[in-house]
Amino acid sequence: MREHAQRLTGLGTTIFAEMSARAVATNSVNLGQGFPDRDGPDSLLEDAISAIRAGANQYPPGRGVPALRQAIADHQKRFYDLSYDPDTEVLVTTGATEAVAAALLAYVEPGDEVIALEPYYDSYAAGIAFAGGRRVPVTLRAPDFRLDLDELRAAVTPRTKVLLINSPHNPTGTVLTDDELRGISAVAVEHDLVVITDEVYEHLAYDGRPHRPLASYDGMAERTVSISSAGKTFAVTGWKIGWVTGTPEVVTAVTTAKQFLTFTSGAPFQPAVAGALALGNDYYDALRADLQSRRDLLCDGLEQLGFGVHRPEGTYFVTTDIRPLGHTDGIEFCRMLPERTGVVAIPHQVFYDNTEAGRPLVRWAFCKQPTLLQEALTRLQKL
After folding, report:
1. How many Cα atoms are found within 13 Å in the side-chain-facing hemisphere of 194?
2. Residue 1: Cβ-neighbour burial (10 angstroms; 0-12, 13-18, 19+)
3. Cross-strand bridge partners of residue 194
4. What is the number of alpha carbons within 13 Å of residue 174 lying toward its C-beta?
């Protein structure tokens, strides 16, 4: 039998699948994959059950149910003063992962270059490969993981087509500043680039930091594919309800690709998410405060154990340097960890092309119950 397509080279079983399997085999506390160990708000769950019982079990409209598209438009106006027409400028997707893939398929021709902030979520590399593009990393370097705008400018070539920006940033936890976002906007406008923004952690920026959508900057509305989802905000990662907002031209382009991936999905979950997006500020504030306290619990504990800790500005994840403990290779460390301590984490270097920059770094998820985080810290004392 012939070999698989060259574009799949290097896209084997994800590190998440490997480490989750190790977690099960060793009965470990899994701080690897970024999903919460609790359900979302009761009203959201009850609305989904009601929708199932009311018969919302067949294909919803290709662009999403009208109530959810309106709720997404209302959300963008409420939090960012961005105005979108729910009929022409909003698209519901099967999670943000599909939205990113569809956007890349919509805008990347074979040979086009896509600049992405490194380390990057592993689906970005796959999506770029599926589109036939070439990924060009701009590295956020430890210990502060800030964007070097000079490096970004230097990465642009005549083949550059897309900037793929993630803020709050997984896995580093960086929240891009106003100066960094202005710099990205200037590069995009100067070189007429499409910008795909992954904003799934938009409500999980800590210590009073604001999340600012790139679409709100001068010259960016017409060139930005803004992406988010319900999974992280409402603790329903398995529902896979994401969305795209942008101009009618942007949404039509992404829809053209998306309709041949899943066409549509999540019929009873879509109206439930519509209701959740309208929850009061008390919900969003409590969510942020709760996760910030879990961040601090895990960061403080890891510091006490001797890790070099980079306290994140946002997301579900904290990054640590393992060199103070005498280790230098994150993959070796994470493969050793479940058997020795009964804890699972994720090595950073799988998120890099420039693997040396991530070799001594390990990512831990703090979106777990405080008792579970404390159990992990107790087990890690075996190190």
Report:
1. 24
2. exposed
3. 162
4. 22
Report the C-alpha gap between 325 and 312 in whole angstroms.
20
Cβ-contact 186, 154 below 8 angstroms: no
The pLDDT value given to residue 213: 98
Pairing status of strand 90-94 against strand 241-245: antiparallel
Per-residue pLDDT tens over the stretch 50-79: 999 999 999 999 999 999 999 999 999 999
Helices (H), the chain: 15-26, 42-53, 66-80, 95-107, 122-130, 149-155, 178-190, 231-234, 248-258, 269-277, 281-304, 330-341, 355-358, 370-380
Instruction: For strands 113-118 and 134-139, give the pairing.
Output: parallel
Taken as a whole, the chain contains a residue count of 383
Helix/strand/coil for 197: strand
Amino acid at 288: R
Supply the pTM of this predicted model.
0.96
**DSSP states of 97-145 as a string?**
HHHHHHHHHHH--TT-EEEEEES--HHHHHHHHHTT-EEEEEE--TTT-
| 150 vs 183: CA distance, rounded Å | 9
Contacts of 88 (CB under 8 A, 6+ apart): 248, 251
